[in-house]
Structures are given as structure tokens and as C-alpha cells.
Amino acid sequence: MMHLEQLPPWAAVIIALFVVVGASLTLLGGVGLVRLKSFYQRLHAPTLGYSYGTLLIILASMLMFSLAEGRVVVHELMIGIFIMVTTPITLLMLGRAALRRDRDRKLGHDEVVPPRIRSTEPPAETETESETGDPQP
Amino acid sequence: MSRFVPHPVLSAVLVLMWLFLTAFTPGHLLLGTLIALGAGWSVEHLHPPKPVFRRWLAIPKLMAVVALDILRSNIAVARVLILGPDHPKYHSGFVELTLRLRDPNALAVLAIILTGTPGTAWIEFDQEEGRLLLHVLDLRSDDDWQSLIRDRYEALLMEIFE
């Protein structure tokens, strides 16, 4: 159903470049997940795929299907928006969970983390999740 | 108007998105409008802090700055990953900063920016004292990060939101 040979050469080159670079960035992020040492370093690796990896592949896809179907195709923007909105939440939750785990000496992780910002219990709201299990000072 | 269409901008954007994703027919216009009104109505019940944009002109500037910074840090992190985690040229660590931003919407945008930038991860934020804990993959000096975030993002975000 797709006629790839109808694409103009300049578009084909740009699309190929975007897809290859985007996919390489995403792959590199995945390799980084394995290669990096600590949990916090690993938090950085997937953002490669999340930022420009996604962006380049989305741009390439939009360009290709817009040219191939002769109308503006923007469905991919939805993918971009949803990834942009959801991924930071996941990474934030993971980071905070890891911080809470590493501050608890009983669990015996040897990761060095900075101490809690305040010694007093914060009032409910945002901090409740990370503080509930702690003994009151 | 405000009773039945509590978030006109959000609803209008949703209708547009619906028409983009499907095709422009009266049926889809009606369905999209109903969905958009329902979405606006349910957002109203979540009581989000209403964002107030003071200067629209700063938004494209912020987006350009962020896109450029993310591109640069993509390259930097890719190099770190290729060199391998044991390379002596860089080391990762935590950085503590103080922020002047207080507006929750602006903070949310800043969190998305910092998390979306490879090489910085937003770990913990103390809302009352405005202290932020970041984890940085390729660490330079402490002041460097403080001034980087203050000058590049915080100033623009304060211009937009506060």
C-alpha cells in the first residue's frame, strides 16, 4: 500500500537520517542502562530515547506519511506529547523511591546519598509518600 | 460560559486534536466537542492551580533554549555512554540547589525540563525552603549548576509565570 519509490530523494535521505540517529540514541540509552553502575546513573540513560530518540523518529514518521499520503499527518504528535508528560513522572517516582531506600541503613545498600534536606517532618502534601514509614523524630 | 465550558482553551485544543486525528465530518465534530466538554468538566473537578501566563513571548524562547540544551546534553551523555562508566574524565554525583520559583505550574515545567534533559535527574524538592536535590551524570562545580539553572530556566520561567 505504501509506495516508497514515490518519495523525493531529499526526503528519503532526511527520513533515513532521522530514523537511524533516533534509533541509535535509543539503543545507546538501552545499552547505558546495562553499562552504568549505580541506580542514579541509570536514571539518565533512558532519557536519551525519551528526548531526541523519540523526537527524531516522530519527525521522520510525520514527514514520511505526510509526503506519502499527500496530507498533513500529525498523529505522531500525540505519541510525543504523551511520552513527554508521562516519562518524567516515572523517573521522578523511581528516583525518590531509590533515595528513600538508600537512606534506610537497615536495607544495607552502600550507595552514598545526601542526608534528608530537613530533619523535621514536613507537613503532609507532597512529601507524604516518601516519609510515611519513618519513625517520628 | 464558564459554568458549561470551564476550561475553554483546553476544550478547544482537544476538539482540534480530535479533528486532526480523525477526519473533518460533522459527526466527529460533535463527538469531539462532547469529549472535550467532558474533559474540561472533569479537570474542573480536580481543582488544579490555574496557570497565569504573564508573558507569552517568553514561551517560544524557553522552548528554543530547552531544545538546544537537550540536544547538547544528548550528545554529552551519548559520549559518556560510549566512553564507558569507568572513564576518569567524568564523575556523577548529587547537587543541591536553591530555587526561587514557588508557582506549582512553573515547578512542574522545570521538573519536566530537568528530567527530560539527559544528564540531570530531579530527585527531591523541598517546597518550603525551595531546595532541590539533583543527580548529575557529568558533574562540574556546584556553583556552575546553580547559576546555569538560575540564568537559563528559572529567570525565563519566572518571567512567564510569576
Automatic annotation (TrEMBL), chain A:
The keyword Transmembrane applies. The keyword Membrane applies. Signal peptide: none annotated. Residues 124-137 have a biased composition (Acidic residues). GO terms for molecular function: sodium:proton antiporter activity. It holds the Pfam family PhaG_MnhG_YufB. Coiled coil: none annotated. Keywords: Membrane, Transmembrane, Transmembrane helix. It comes from the Bacteria. Residues 106-137 are annotated as: Disordered. InterPro entries: PhaG_MnhG_YufB. The chain crosses the membrane at residues 12-36, 48-67, 79-99. This is Multicomponent K+:H+ antiporter subunit G. It comes from Paracoccus versutus. The lineage of its organism: Bacteria, Pseudomonadati, Pseudomonadota, Alphaproteobacteria, Rhodobacterales.
Automatic annotation (TrEMBL), chain B:
It is found in: Cell membrane. GO terms for molecular function: monoatomic cation transmembrane transporter activity. The keyword Nucleotidyltransferase does not apply. The chain crosses the membrane at residues 12-41. It is a multi-pass membrane protein. Its main location: membrane. InterPro entries: Cation_antiport_E (IPR002758). Keywords: Cell membrane, Membrane, Transmembrane, Transmembrane helix. It comes from the Bacteria. GO terms for cellular component: plasma membrane. Signal peptide: none annotated. NCBIfam families: PRK08965.1-4. Belongs to the CPA3 antiporters (TC 2.A.63) subunit E family. This is Multisubunit potassium/proton antiporter PhaE subunit. It comes from Paracoccus versutus.
